[in-house]
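lol ok so funny story. i was supposed to be doing the assay writeup but got distracted and ended up predicting the structure for this chain instead. priorities right. anyway since i did it might as well share w the group, maybe its usefull for someone
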Amino acid sequence: MTEEISNRPARVAVVGAGHWGPHLVRNFEANPDSRLVAVCDASAERLRALARSFPGIRMESSAELILDDPEIDAVVIATPASTHYELAKRALLSGKHVLVEKPITTRSAEAEELELLARRKGRVLLVGHVFLYNEAVRRLKAIVSALRHRPTSGRAFRMFSSRPSSSRAAESLISTRAGSTHRRSARSPSWASIR
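and the output, tada:
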């Protein structure tokens, strides 16, 4: 990268077009501060579907081609968690800024290593935390905060969660204390029970 990206939109590639990838592709394509230049996925079917929706965006099946491309400023990693460390490390070593979906890595030592590498290379390393703004997470935080002000006599609490988009979340339950159960629909927050 020979020119500063502050002078122009960042040239971005999304690696991983599975569950979350298409949302990232759409958002980076629509963002005036970025220019989506490439999408990478191992599935030719996913790439064909994205190519129909985003003509003119380069589609690749090899992450190596993305990571080795000097014209790409930043890489967004939305692949299985087990691949995050290697892909993020390779991107940082190639001089790219990195946004990696959570979890950043599967081991804390790897995350620390990536942080040090990003500092050494002068690159930005970000972790996606979209659920910080999710209504279910906000509601759960409110419940936990309310429970802090009640005498719990050392009781342990357990939480179970499921995605509202999954078929198993057709009906979820929440229980904040023994014997108090409230039914919630699939459109309600994605937490199921606290006891």
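The two ends are 53 Å apart (CA to CA). Confidence is low (pLDDT under 50) at residues 165-195.
back to the writeup now i swear
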